[in-house]
């Protein structure tokens, strides 16, 4: 009888290893994500006035949260991606087909100024106006990720019958983004946008425990899916950029065509 139970274990292990080979994840090629997350938002009108010039300053991780790792090692990884400024610049450049904002570089302005000095020195004093003047933004955009709260909600369901147990668990973290638009001329905070986004994780699992004569047979399987924090942060930034555009329209930063469209004559 023990030999029969041992045979069951061998068959199950062979099936599990076989499924692992069949369901192995192939190497995925890189994907371009140049399109804004607001590309499918058709409720907002494209302005007929020129885009406003803005600069991004110090849009950083201000949460201080560290990543929770499954490995029993001590690492200093952050819970929030560190490329927040790059995400914000991407959304500002691509939102509204690039007709909302015109972004100038400010975080690496010292590098740009040094390079301009090198160019001027290389061309010599005989060249008139070797470089165009830098664009001056009227508005600076600053802020960052200000909070990351873990397991703000948790839902789970378990069911067992005849030594077969199943479990479903869903929990969500929450990341919050604050974005400020500051006037360069006066230093006044023109607008402040606060956006929160949930980061979802889900686990489904089943386990079977059977007594085969005097031996115990256990089988367990499960699936875990986690929403990438980078996607959640980028979604929150996109929502903040959209809200900034809506408020900017009310302030008159842009001009849109309000005339009704004429229907074609048939």
Could you say what the CATH architecture is? Answer: 3-Layer(aba) Sandwich
In whole angstroms, the N-to-C terminal distance is 85 Å
Which fold name fills CATH's third level, the topology? Rossmann fold
- Determine the fraction of residues in helical runs and give it as a percent range: 25-40%
Question: How many domains make up the 3D coordinates?
Answer: 1
Mean pLDDT: 80
- How much of the polypeptide forms β-strand, as a percent range? 25-35%
Structure explained in plain terms:
A hairpin with a 5-residue loop joins strand 4 and strand 5. The relative contact order is 0.17. With 266 residues, this protein is α/β, with parallel strands linked by helices. The protein has helices spanning 2-22, 84-94, 109-123, 229-251, and strands spanning 52-61, 101-104, 139-161, 164-183, 189-212, 215-226. The mean pLDDT is 80. It is elongated and about 95 Å long. The protein has one domain: 3-Layer(aba) Sandwich (Rossmann fold). Strands 2-1-3-4-5-6 form a six-stranded mixed β-sheet.
SSE blueprint and pairings:
Layout: H1 2-22, E1 52-61, H2 84-94, E2 101-104, H3 109-123, E3 139-161, E4 164-183, E5 189-212, E6 215-226, H4 229-251
Parallel strand pairs: 1-2, 1-3
Antiparallel strand pairs: 3-4, 4-5, 5-6
Helix pairs in contact: 2-4
């Amino acid at each position: 009888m023990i030999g029969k139970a041992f045979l069951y274990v061998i068959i199950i292990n062979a099936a599990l290893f076989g499924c692992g080979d069949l369901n192995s994840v192939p190497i995925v090629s890189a994907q371009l994500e140049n399109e804004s997350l607001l590309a499918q938002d058709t409720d907002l009108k494209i302005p007929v006035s020129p885009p406003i010039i803005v600069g991004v300053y110090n849009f950083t991780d201000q949460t201080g949260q560290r990543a929770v790792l499954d490995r029993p090692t001590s690492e200093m990884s952050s819970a929030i991606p560190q490329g927040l400024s790059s995400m914000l610049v991407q959304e500002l450049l691509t939102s509204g087909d690039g007709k909302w904002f015109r972004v100038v570089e400010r975080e690496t302005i010292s590098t740009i100024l040094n390079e301009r000095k090198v160019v001027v020195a290389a061309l010599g004093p005989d060249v008139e106006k070797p470089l165009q003047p830098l664009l001056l933004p009227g508005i600076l955009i600053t802020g960052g990720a200000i909070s990351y709260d873990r397991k703000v909600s948790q839902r789970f369901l378990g069911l067992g019958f005849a030594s077969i147990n199943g479990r479903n668990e869903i929990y969500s973290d929450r990341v919050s983004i604050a974005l400020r638009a500051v006037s360069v001329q006066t230093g006044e905070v023109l607008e402040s946008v606060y956006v929160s986004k949930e980061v979802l994780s889900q686990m489904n699992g089943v386990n079977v425990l059977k007594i085969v004569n005097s031996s115990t047979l256990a089988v367990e399987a499960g699936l875990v899916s986690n929403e990438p924090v980078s996607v959640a942060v980028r979604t929150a930034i996109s929502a903040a950029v959209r809200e900034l555009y809506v408020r900017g329209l009310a302030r008159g930063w842009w001009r849109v065509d309000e005339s009704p469209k004429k229907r074609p004559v048939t």
